[in-house]
Every structure is written in C-alpha cells, then in structure tokens.
Amino acid sequence: MKRKYQTWDEYLDETLNDPVDEAHYLTAAAEENDPAFMLLALSQVARARGVSKTAREASISRMGLYKALSKNGNPGFKTFLRVLKAAGMQLEFKPA
Prior knowledge:
The chain is mainly alpha-helical. The protein contains 6 helices and no strands. It has one domain. The protein is globular, with a radius of gyration of 14 Å.
C-alpha cells in the first residue's frame, strides 16, 4: 500500500487558514532575525490567502508580489507594509 505524504507547502496551506495562526507564524519568523526567512514566511501567508487577492489588496501586480517575496526578493519597507496589511496583519513592537 502506497502512502501519500504531504509536502511542507501543502501542510502550510492547510494550517495557515486562520489569522491568529498566521500572526503566530509571522511573529515566530520575525523572532529569528533573518530577513530572508521573514520574506519566506510572508510569501507563505500570501499564498495561503491567495496571491492574486493579496496582490490586489496591496495594490501591486501578482508578478510584482511574487518577485518581491521571492528568495532573491528585496522589497522596500513600504511594499512590505502593504503586503502585511493586505494579509490582515500589522507590525507590533515589544521590548527585547
């Protein structure tokens, strides 16, 4: 009997379907202090919410969103904040 295993992306798509879970995931990614990992986490949240919908709400093209959140992406802070807002998130600061 052949087993079907989920890929990490399939698991995230199923798991990241609640804004609270998405916020916890992004917070954990931010705590790693790794910009590339933070972009990866934000791109996974955007994919789980729907890239086209997230791009539309962030007022950027779908391809622009893919490019900004890609492995080699380097979005400006303004773009980063617009994507966060489109994903229903906001930045929060706390003392270290």
